[in-house]
Every structure is written in structure tokens, then in C-alpha cells.
Amino acid sequence: MKHTRLLAAFVPLLLFLLAGCGEPAMPTTSHGGPVRDYVSLIDHLRAAGATVVPVGPVTQPFFAVTGQSITVNGEQVQVYEYANEETASVDAAHISSDGGTVGNALVDWTAPPHFYKTGKLLVLYLGTNSSVMNVVSMTLGPQFAGT
After folding, report:
1. Domain locations in the chain as residue ranges
2. Which letter, b or e, does each residue of 84-123 get, where b requires 16 or more Cβ atoms within 10 Å of its Cβ?
């Protein structure tokens, strides 16, 4: 009898504690507004219907910061986030209009380059997938350099 009362007291508590287990962690969100950083870019791309998967760090020798590689609809896109718009503009100014030269470097890209800039972000897509170019252009505006 004593065990039955003890069990009856602890079962609801146990069920209450277990109810919170297994819930997924809340994703980081941009809290709306314009694209202003890496997180808000991913948020806007997804809101536009793109499938976006973060991959990991990426570097280019001519950019002052380490970027993040993401896949957008299965294609790799490189995102470089600077401390502010001015430092992003400095690196962007070194990119030729066709994207074939960055500073003094003549770059032999593996696919046609497409460079986008908004605020403190520089975004590079190497490829020809029109769905990727459309969703990135829709999110960031037209490319400023590339083919």
C-alpha cells in the first residue's frame, strides 16, 4: 500500500519531466528584416523556397575573411561576412566586372563566377544552375561581377 502511494506520487512527475525530452533545439533565426548577415541570408533563402544546408568554413586567398560554405538547392555557395560594409566593399572593389581577376590574380575558376554583395556580405557562386542564381539574385539583388 505504501509503495502504491509512492508510485502514484512520482509517476506524474516522471511523465512531466519526460514530456520535454526529445524536442529539437530551436534554430537560430534572423528575426526578420533585410539580409544583414550569414544567418539572415540563410533565413531569406529558405523563405524564398531554397533548400539551404550549412557545410563549413571556406577560404579564398584574396578575401580578408574566412567564409562559410552552404549548399543552395544542392550547389555550393560561398558566403563571406565582414565586420562592416566598408571592409566588404574594399574586397569587392578588387573584383573585375567579369570576375576573372581579383586584385592582381587572374583566377581560373572551375565554373563561371557570380559575385553578389549586400551590406557586409560577399557571396560567390561558381556554376550555371539557374534556380540557384535566381534565388540568390532574388535575395541579394543582381550580381555585381561575374559572367
Report:
1. 32-146
2. eeeebeebbeebeeebbebeeeebeeeeebbbbbbbbbbb
For residues 105 and 85, give the distance between their C-alpha atoms in angstroms, rounded to a whole number. 23
pLDDT (tens digit per residue) in 82-117? 999 999 999 999 999 999 999 999 999 999 999 999
- pTM of the full predicted structure? 0.78
Q: In whole angstroms, give the CA distance from residue 46 to residue 131.
A: 13
